[in-house]
Sequence to fold (227 residues):
Amino acid sequence: MPELVFFSGTMDCGKSTLALQIEHNRSTRGLQGMIYTKNDRAGEGKLSSRLGLVTDSVEAGEGFDFYAHIVGHISAGGRADYVIADEAQFLAPEQVDQLARIVDDLELDVFAFGITTDFRTRLFPGSQRLVELADRIEVLQVEALCWCGARATHNARTVGGQMVVEGAQVVVGDVNQPETVVGYEVLCRRHHRRRLTAAAARAAALSPDVLPLDPVDEAANASSVGV
Fold:
């Protein structure tokens, strides 16, 4: 039976790489898929991985109708055996409904990939709708790591290396960006709650834990203990 499958995880856990792997595996078996994405780091009409892999895709912008596009493609003599939708967190809830309709009415597998929550730990509308409608939810097993080495579970937005918790929900960026620009970093829950990014942790490590005693105070302390 065809399924709507939602592959979720934090940034930097290999979602786009898996999307490209699914496309490769199925295309080598003679199947033809329709690939969609939105706001990919490589630009409009691209699906890219941080490993350097990239392929062409259809940009699913505001008001884009997945179901109408697939029906139009097939009606024009095209072929579609499955659908891949990357960066699905950016989709509107009604667009996720269209993906579900493709599964139910056209009997095609739909593989959607996206992060679940934003930099404020709030659900993206597209991800929320996928959780509500998906036949299956798969959490990716390639664990992104926080700077402390623990499993990263949260996405943080940074400006100048410092975590920010206000602003628009969607600001396109990437991990490992220069500290002078808006970027993103994956953190464990503890450090996300403390707003402690890698840059902030480095700054804290450079600060002395204990301030040195004033020489006068040091001499007084020595006299008091009979040294």
Notes: The CA atoms of residues 2 and 107 lie 6 Å apart. The radius of gyration is 24 Å. Residues 1-142 form a domain with the Rossmann fold fold (CATH 3.40.50.300).
